[in-house]
């Protein structure tokens, strides 16, 4: 605890923390914008790969040693880049016939960014991926970890327990839960409280013309609006059965006054909110509210995190609840998973 001399005095520790967070979260945006300005503030065709917004600019030769615009570009790739301004509306990107040449336009969904390529890589190397199987660590020693799943016990060289904090107690059998690190982790997670996330889906008979696929709302009660026409496009029969032409999802992260509303009242409140956004917003003909009660742990002052992520030399924890400096985010989950992976790799390499 740092002391301050008056109620207005600045807490140096807080300032340091704010500085670090600004560097992590704000500085990348600044450097991206500087990059955007540099690469777009050039007339078309004046410099390979550079040019105004909303158009592709091509590099027709591989970058040479003088190329300094991007750190470590691939030397065997003919890049075409476009900075797209989606402020007023989405943009359709169409690609010309590549005439049989190798062509990559990276636009990936989140599963394709990491989990699915990872699963494919594991399987390609002879590993096995078991989905929808609950697992329990039944023993952990200096040289192995026993994992019970789907009626069988697997002897593993090492294991990473990457379950949510509220699921940890069920993932560890009593003998393992008694290990000092595990007991401390279970103690810490037992004190955690959770925040809900509500997603309100509204379906419409008419097609919607929104100015963006994702819109920030006024927080009363919805925070974000997502145009989910992609769901209708992927499931045309289900949409036709309900006579839906338009679908939006409105997301409310964390609890609030809306917690007391039932699904119908909440959907009605969200529709009123959308009419504030645009008075002509049509009346929904279908709605569904999904509330994930334990969406994230409540990141409150003084929250204690597990003291260690190593429950044993071959048994590690991973998850968004472990880093004392980060709230519950994909970032903290990925960082922690990478750390646990490195720890396990060291043990497997060196014994
Ligand atoms: C609706 C919603 C919206 C969110 N939006 C964002 C966002 O915009 N940005 C952001 O950064 N974060 C967001 N988050 C938070 C983010 O999803 C989490 O921080 C992240 O998924 C945590 O990852 P994790 O790997 O620690 O845990 P999880 O993603 O919870 O994964 C744990 C997995 O372990 C499985 N499991 C549990 N017990 C067992 C067992 N015994 N055996 C086998 N498997 C088990 C669970 O089924 C689960 O699949 C959101 C969360 C929700 C719910």
Name of the top-level CATH class of the largest domain: Alpha Beta
Mean pLDDT: 88
Which percent range describes the beta-strand content?
Answer: 15-25%
Span from first to last CA? 41 Å
Annotation, overall tally of beta strands: 13
User: Which regions are unreliable across 5 or more consecutive residues at pLDDT < 50?
Assistant: 1-7
Strand order of the largest sheet: 8-9-10-7-11
Q: Hetero groups bound?
A: flavin-adenine dinucleotide
What is the total number of structural domains?
3
CATH superfamily of the largest domain: FAD/NAD(P)-binding domain
The number of helical runs is 10
And the CATH topology of the largest domain? FAD/NAD(P)-binding domain
The CATH level-2 architecture of the largest domain is identified as 3-Layer(bba) Sandwich
Alpha-carbon Rg, integer = 25 Å
Helix coverage percent: 25-40%
SS-based class: alpha+beta
The outline comes out as: globular
Question: What would you say this structure looks like, in words?
Answer:
With 351 residues, the protein is of the alpha+beta class. It folds into 3 domains: 32-81, no CATH class; 136-192 and 302-350, FAD/NAD(P)-binding domain, CATH 3.50.50; 194-296, Polyamine Oxidase, Chain A, domain 2. The chain is 31% helix and 19% strand. It has 10 helices and 13 strands. The strands form 4 sheets. The chain has a 5-stranded antiparallel β-sheet with strand order 8-9-10-7-11. A hairpin with a 2-residue loop joins strand 4 (145-149) and strand 5 (152-156). The two termini are 41 Å apart. Flavin-adenine dinucleotide (FAD) binds at residues 134-135, 162-164, 167, 170-171, 197, 292, 295-296, 319-320, 328-331, 333.
